[in-house]
Amino acid sequence: MTAQLLLVQALNGLQFGILLFLVAAGLTLVFGVMDVINLAHGVQYMLGAYLGASLAAATGSFWLGLLLALPATLACGLLLELLVFRHLYDRDHLAQVLATFGVILTLNEAVTLLWGSAPLQVATPALLEGGVTLMPGLQYPLYRLAILAAGLATAGLLWLLVEHTRAGALLRAGASNRPMLAALGVDTGRLFLLVFGLGAMLAGFAGAMAAPILSVEPGMGDSVLILAFVVIVIGGIGSVRGAFLAALLVGLVEVLGRSLLPDLMRLVLAPSPARQAGASIGSMLVYIAMALILAVRPRGLFPARAG
């Protein structure tokens, strides 16, 4: 692999990691603060992509569609919390898994009924078409760099919210000791509604931003959800900082592993077996890394701390 291709794949890994962070940040807060296993979080990513694509087509502007998709996904998240998740807080994790799996099936079918099963394509906004020259003979898509910048800006705003506001202190306290927070008189119902809505909006934002570089289709959130769970386990449940660093790590391992391993395997195997072995090991590499990290740090790299 050439140095140019390695740089491109590293940037792709960082961009994928940023999208994972936007999904995992809400998931880690829901899991850490509310103690709810939300398998339907990937569906909110899918809804963000569909709503962004549809609103962009209806308004004729990608940016207006993206802007309108944020309150739309927030509203969807709040509605789900009121109709479904509010009734699961005092149930065991098995009941939460079964109920949220039912939400996945229901919303995937609803999306298929509304938009059909054929993938939707979203055009890259004209302002961000083309590429940026990173080195002689190498251009990188400007839109992917914009995803990186938007994700970093969102991470910064989320850090300010969690670390430097009263709401953030309540979130950190809830992630560390939820019963004590309720005993102190905090309205946990309102806090949970805020957390769930924020998580849904972040996932929807990730889906809307990913729409121009991915096919928008039913079930597109399932694979992202699995990796988002890996991210929060590695980073530490309830830790936004951990989710950010772990998402970048997972993104790099996922993309670089899949691209580098087939070339490395050719050092010891024939081209065809090397390609197959590299693809197989590359798909497992993230989970191997998770197992190794948890063997050393069972609570993750950056477990949540009290506010």
Keywords:
ABC transporter involved in vitamin B12 uptake, BtuC, 307 residues, mainly alpha, two-stranded antiparallel ribbon, 11 helices
Question: Could you give the topology of this structure?
Answer:
Blueprint: H1 3-34, H2 41-59, H3 62-83, H4 93-115, E1 131-135, E2 138-141, H5 142-164, H6 166-176, H7 178-183, H8 188-210, H9 221-235, H10 240-265, H11 271-296
Antiparallel strand pairs: 1-2
Helix pairs in contact: 1-5, 1-6, 1-8, 1-9, 1-10, 2-3, 2-4, 2-8, 2-9, 3-8, 5-6, 9-10, 9-11, 10-11
Describe this structure in words.
- This protein has 307 residues and is mainly alpha-helical.
- It has one domain (3-296): ABC transporter involved in vitamin B12 uptake, BtuC (Orthogonal Bundle), CATH 1.10.3470.
- It has 11 helices and 2 strands.
- The chain has helices at residues 3-34, 41-59, 62-83, 93-115, 142-164, 166-176, 178-183, 188-210, 221-235, 240-265, 271-296; strands at 131-135, 138-141.
- A two-stranded antiparallel ribbon has the order 1-2.
- Strand 1 (131-135) and strand 2 form a beta hairpin.
- The longest helix is centred in the N-terminal third of the chain and has 32 residues, at 3-34.
- The radius of gyration is 20 Å and the shape is globular.
- 44% of the residues are buried.
- The model has no long low-confidence stretch (mean pLDDT 85).
- It is found in: Cell membrane.
- InterPro entries: ABC_transp_permease, BCAA_transport_permease.
- Belongs to the binding-protein-dependent transport system permease family. LivHM subfamily.
